[in-house]
Design goal:
The complex is a heterodimer of chains A (about 375) and B (about 270).
Chain A: H1 2-5, H2 8-12, H3 16-19, H4 21-45, H5 53-63, H6 74-108, H7 121-138, H8 145-171, E1 172-173, E2 176-177, H9 179-203, H10 206-217, H11 225-252, H12 256-261, H13 266-288, H14 294-306, H15 310-334, H16 343-365
Helix pairs in contact in A: 4-15, 6-11, 6-13, 6-14, 6-15, 7-8, 7-9, 7-10, 7-13, 8-9, 8-11, 8-13, 11-13, 11-15, 14-15
Chain B: E1 6-16, E2 19-30, E3 34-39, H1 45-53, E4 60-65, E5 68-69, H2 75-81, E6 82-85, H3 97-103, H4 115-127, H5 143-157, E7 168-172, H6 180-196, E8 199-203, H7 207-213, E9 216-221, E10 224-230, H8 231-234, H9 237-244, E11 248-252, E12 259-263, H10 266-270
Parallel strand pairs in B: 3-8, 3-9, 6-7, 7-8
Antiparallel strand pairs in B: 1-2, 1-4, 4-5, 9-10, 11-12
Classes of the chains: A mainly alpha (about 375), B alpha/beta (about 270).
Chain lengths: ~375, ~270
C-alpha cells in the first residue's frame, strides 16, 4: 500500500532526489528549455507550406536587416513571418501561462486536482470575454483598435478574478479546502458560464457566433503580432512574479497556520497568487479560448521528476506547458491538414483520460475526502 | 533583558459564538523551562496554544514575547525565535522527508538553502532518530514517523539561538502517535532544549510523562485554570479528580524523583 504512494522519481532514483536536489531541478529546467527550442524549430518548419531550417534563419535574419545568401519564396516569407511565428509565440506564451497557473492553483488549494479549467476559472474568463463581444458590439464602441484589443484580456481577467474569489470562498473553510466542494463548485460555475454564453449566443449575430465557438473550442489560429504584443505583459509579468510565491507556496502545502509559523504572510501570498492566476488565465482565454487540461497535466508530469518544490515546479511548468501546447498545436494543424482541429478539443482528448487516471490513483491516496 | 525572556499571556479570554473557550487565563513560558498543559478534551489547551503563538487573537487580554506585544513582531522575526508543532499537519504532496525538514529553515533562508541549512536539517533528523527516513517520500510514512519528521522540522527552525537569544518551542500533543520509546525520546529532547535555554510549552495527555519531564504544570478545565505550579504542587489526587473526574493515587516514583500517578477505579477496589 505504501509503495503505491511512492512517486516515480523516488522509485527510479532512490536517494538521488535529495542529494542532487538543487542541481537536478536546474538540469530539468535546462532540458525543458532545449526541448522547447527544438519544438519551436519543428513547428516553424512544418505545415501547409514547407520551410527548411536554413530558410527559417535566412528569413528571420532578413527581417532583422541582415541579408544572407539563401533562396526562399515571398510566400514562404509571408507564411513564416505573418502566420507561423506569431502563432508559435502565442502558443508559447499561453502554454507557459496555463502551466504555471495550474501549478500555482494546485499549490494554493493544496490539492493536485485544482485546475483553472476544471474549477471554472477559465469559464468565468470566457464568459466575461464573450459578454464584451456581444455587449461591446451592441453599444458599438468606437474605441481605437488598441483599446479593443485590451478590452478582451481585461474583461477576461476580471471574469477569472471574480470566479477564483467565489470558488475560493465557497470551498475553503478555515484554511482547509474541501475538495469535493471545490470540484462541485467548478461544475456549477462551468454550467452557469455555459448557460450565460448560450443566452448570449441567442442574441448573437452570425459573426459573433463564430467567435463564441472559437472560445468554446480553443485555437491558436487567431495569432498575429498585435495579439502577441497585447498578451505579452499579461503573461510575462505573472510568470516573473510567480517566483515570489514559490517558497511560501511550498510552506502552504504544510498547512496555513504552519506556513504562518514559518514566517510567511499567507494572506498576502494567497491574494497575489489569485491575482497572478487570474491575469494569466484571463489573457490566455481572451486570445485562445478554452484550452483545458494543460494546467492539470503539466504540473503532474513535472512533479514526478522534480518533486513538488515550487521553485522548480513553477518555471518548469512554464517551459513544459509551452512545449506541450506547441506540440498539440503542431498536431492540430498537421493531422487533418489542410483543415485544422480545434486545439482545445485535442488537449481535452488527451487530458480527460489523464484526469480519470488521477482520480483512480488518488482514490488510494484519499485526496478526495 | 533576562527578565524579558518569556512568552507571557495576561488575562486571556477567548469567546467564540458567545461561548467562552478560555476565561481569564494568565500564563508564561519561561526560557529554560518545560511547561506542560493538561486537561480533558475540549478544555481549551489547543486554543491557548493558538493564542500564545499568534494564530488566534484573544477576545480580551494580551500576549507578549520578550516583553514586546506579539502583534508588534514581524512574522519573520517571530518565526526566527519561536517554532510551533500543531496537532496534526496534512501534507499530501510527495516531498522527500529532508525537504520537509528543510522547510523549518525557511525564516533563515533567502532564496536557496545553504550547506549549513542542510547540515542542520540532517542533525535535526538525527535528533529525532529519523535520519534513515531522509530520502523517503513524506506521504508514505506512518503516523508516528510523520510526527517525528515534523518535530525535526520545528527543531531545525530554532536550532541556533536567535538574534535576541531567546527561543521558544510550542508542542501540541507531540506524543499522540508515538510508541512508548519515542514518547520518552521526544520529551527528553524537550528537556535537553530547556537546559540549552529554550522555553517550551508541551500539551500532553499522559500525566506521568508530564510528571517526569515538566518543570511546571497547568491544569485546564472548561477554559479555566484549575491549578498552575510545580509538578509536586499540581499532581495531587484532589486536583487530578477536579480536572479529569477520575480517582487516582499519587505515590512517589520508585526510580525517579517525581510523583507517579496510578489510575484506580474505586468501584472495582471496593469489591
Amino acid at each position: 500500500m505504501n509503495e503505491i504512494k511512492d512517486n516515480l522519481a523516488s522509485r527510479l532514483f532512490p536517494g538521488l532526489r535529495t542529494k542532487l536536489k538543487g542541481k537536478r531541478g536546474r538540469v530539468v529546467l535546462l532540458v525543458l528549455f532545449l526541448l522547447l527550442i527544438f519544438i519551436v524549430l519543428v513547428s516553424a518548419d512544418k505545415g501547409a507550406v514547407e520551410i527548411s531550417q536554413q530558410q527559417i534563419f535566412a528569413i528571420v535574419l532578413k527581417n532583422l536587416g541582415i541579408n544572407v545568401a539563401s533562396d526562399f519564396t515571398v510566400q514562404q516569407e509571408a507564411t513564416l513571418i505573418d502566420i507561423r511565428l506569431p502563432r508559435i509565440a502565442l502558443g508559447l506564451l499561453v502554454g507557459a501561462a496555463l502551466g504555471t497557473s495550474g501549478a500555482a492553483m494546485q499549490g494554493l488549494f493544496r490539492n493536485p486536482l485544482a485546475d483553472p479549467g476544471l474549477i471554472g476559472i477559465s469559464s468565468g474568463a470566457a464568459f466575461a470575454a464573450t459578454a464584451v463581444v456581444i455587449v461591446g458590439d451592441a453599444v458599438s464602441v468606437s474605441l481605437p483598435i488598441i483599446f479593443q484589443l485590451f478590452a478582451f484580456p481585461v474583461a477576461a481577467f476580471l471574469g477569472a478574478l471574480a470566479t477564483t474569489l467565489i470558488i475560493y470562498r465557497l470551498s475553503t473553510i478555515a484554511g482547509q479546502t474541501a475538495v469535493a466542494t471545490l470540484l462541485l463548485a467548478g461544475i456549477a460555475i462551468n454550467a452557469l458560464a455555459q448557460s450565460f454564453s448560450g443566452f448570449l449566443t441567442f442574441y448573437a449575430t452570425d459573426t459573433q457566433i463564430r467567435s463564441l465557438t472559437f472560445w468554446k473550442l480553443g485555437s491558436l489560429g487567431g495569432g498575429n503580432w498585435s495579439s502577441v504584443l497585447a498578451i505579452l505583459p499579461f503573461i510575462l509579468i505573472p510568470i516573473l512574479l510567480f517566483s515570489r510565491v514559490a517558497r511560501p507556496l511550498n510552506a502552504l502545502l504544510l498547512g496555513e497556520s504552519e506556513a504562518g509559523h514559518l514566517g510567511f504572510d499567507i494572506e498576502k501570498v494567497k491574494k497575489l497568487t489569485i491575482v497572478l492566476v487570474a491575469l494569466s488565465v484571463g489573457a490566455s482565454v481572451a486570445f485562445t479560448g478554452l484550452i483545458t487540461f494543460v494546467g492539470l497535466v503539466v504540473p503532474h508530469l513535472l512533479r514526478l521528476v522534480t518533486g513538488p518544490d515550487h521553485r522548480y515546479l513553477l518555471p518548469g511548468s512554464a517551459l513544459l506547458g509551452a512545449c506541450l501546447l506547441l506540440a498539440a498545436d503542431f498536431v492540430a494543424r498537421t493531422l487533418v491538414a489542410p483543415a485544422e482541429m480545434p486545439i482545445g478539443v485535442l488537449t481535452a482528448i488527451a487530458g480527460a483520460p489523464f484526469f480519470l487516471w488521477l482520480l483512480l490513483r488518488d482514490r488510494k491516496w484519499r485526496i478526495i475526502h | 533583558m533576562e527578565n524579558n525572556s518569556l512568552i507571557e499571556a495576561q488575562n486571556i479570554t477567548v469567546e467564540i459564538h458567545s461561548r467562552k473557550i478560555l476565561e481569564d487565563v494568565s500564563v508564561s513560558i519561561n526560557c529554560g523551562e518545560v511547561l506542560a498543559v493538561l486537561g480533558a478534551n475540549g478544555a481549551g489547551k489547543s486554543t491557548l496554544r493558538k493564542v500564545l503563538c499568534g494564530d488566534l487573537a484573544p477576545t480580551a487580554g494580551a500576549v507578549s514575547m520578550n516583553g514586546k506585544a506579539l502583534d508588534d513582531w514581524t512574522l519573520i522575526e517571530r518565526a526566527k525565535a519561536r517554532a510551533v508543532l500543531p496537532q496534526d499537519s496534512t501534507l499530501n504532496f510527495p516531498f522527500a522527508v529532508l525537504e520537509v525538514v528543510l522547510m523549518g529553515r525557511a525564516p533563515h533562508v533567502r532564496g536557496t538553502e545553504s550547506r549549513k541549512d542542510y547540515e542542520i536539517a540532517r542533525a535535526a533528523l538525527e535528533a529525532v532518530e529519523a535520519e534513515h527516513l531522509e530520502d523517503r517520500i513524506y506521504p508514505t510514512l506512518s503516523g508516528g514517523e510523520r510526527q517525528r519528521v515534523h518535530l525535526a522540522r520545528v527543531l531545525a527552525q530554532i536550532w541556533e539561538s536567535s538574534a535576541t537569544g531567546a527561543r521558544y518551542l510550542l508542542l501540541d500533543e507531540p506524543t499522540s502517535n508515538l510508541d512508548l520509546a519515542h514518547q520518552h525520546e521526544t520529551l527528553k529532547i524537550a528537556r535537553k532544549l530547556a537546559v540549552e535555554g529554550v522555553g517550551l510549552l508541551v500539551i500532553l495527555h499522559d500525566l506521568n510523562l508530564a510528571a517526569r519531564y515538566a518543570d511546571k504544570v497547568m491544569m485546564l478545565k472548561d477554559g479555566k485554570i484549575i491549578a498552575f505550579g510545580s509538578v509536586e504542587e499540581v499532581f495531587t489526587a484532589g486536583i487530578i479528580d477536579e480536572t479529569f473526574g477520575v480517582n487516582v493515587s499519587v505515590i512517589k516514583h520508585p526510580f525517579f524523583d517525581c510523583p507517579l500517578i496510578i489510575w484506580r477505579d474505586d468501584a472495582d477496589i471496593s469489591e
